[in-house]
Amino acid sequence: MGMESLGAETRMYGEEAIVLEGEGFEATIIPAFGGNLARLRHTGTGLDVLRSPADLAGYLENVFLCGSPVLFPPNRIADGVFSEGDHTYRLKINEPSRGCHLHGFAYDKAWQVVSAPEVRGPGHVAMEWRAADFPDVQEQYPHRMALRLEYALKDGALWQTIRATNEGDTYAPCGLGFHTTFALPLRNGGDPALCTVSLPLGKQWELNDRLLPTEKLLDLPDLEQWRTGKVIAGLPLDDVFTSEPDPSLDPNPLTSGVRTHTAVLQDNTDALDPIQVQYTCQGPIQHWVIYNRDGNSGYVSIEPYTWVTNAPNLSLPRDVTGYRVLAPGEHMMMTNSIRLIRSGVVL
Question: Which fold is adopted by the domain 3-346?
Fold first, then answer.
């Protein structure tokens, strides 16, 4: 898996890594590679929950398909251009085939470690990233936005929290997301045809040939399957959906802006002993992207977003697109957790 242990120090893909151990998990975080949770192994079962390429070459083939990269902002901006107030933003085109800026500024930058255990084991990791520290980011996004990313193992789960704070004196557009890529099947040697994925979907965004929303929202004929468990083996997906979680899980969704969204991956290869991953996301999340390449590649990316693809350029109301601008001193936060469940019991 491209890891090398050197006493208290661990390296992955040639970079220094931090390893947390506890609650049945081993989590490997690489600060130099966007603070990415690059590997999550369940020690009791030996299962790798997230997709982690075997070596650096495999990682570099597509850095978004390893672990859970931070997306700030998420997904595509058409032509890399949008306007807010009197300012026009011109972002670098890093997806030339579609003429788009893709997935923002933070996923490939080094994050500063604020706190971490001195040796691999239980504990808490906190890292920070500031737009003002990177001249190439400031050329595109001239704001003093600060991101704080934290990981912890507790309550039988891996916890991941990100907080974006506008430390400047100007209003700043802000969208957050994660490109979390799970191994599927979950079991080694599992049968993809016996694996399901469920999410609290609402509508599907119609996309054009550049994978940009046309502003039309479509009804899902298979909505019930998506909500209860859909087999996606052989079904290519690169699609965008609204999220409509159960309101009973959110006591004050209109006032707090915090909603609970849970995606579930289940491997029924052994019908008498199913294994399930629960990916629970809380915050001002309004959209999901689901990506699995050709449907036969052994993974699925489940991506929670606060704003939809190309949100700054859409004419729809902001409460529909999720487009948001933070005032000076204002912040936005997302908290995610990953649990492994076997026969109804949290492992």
Answer: Beta-galactosidase; Chain A, domain 5 (2.70.98)
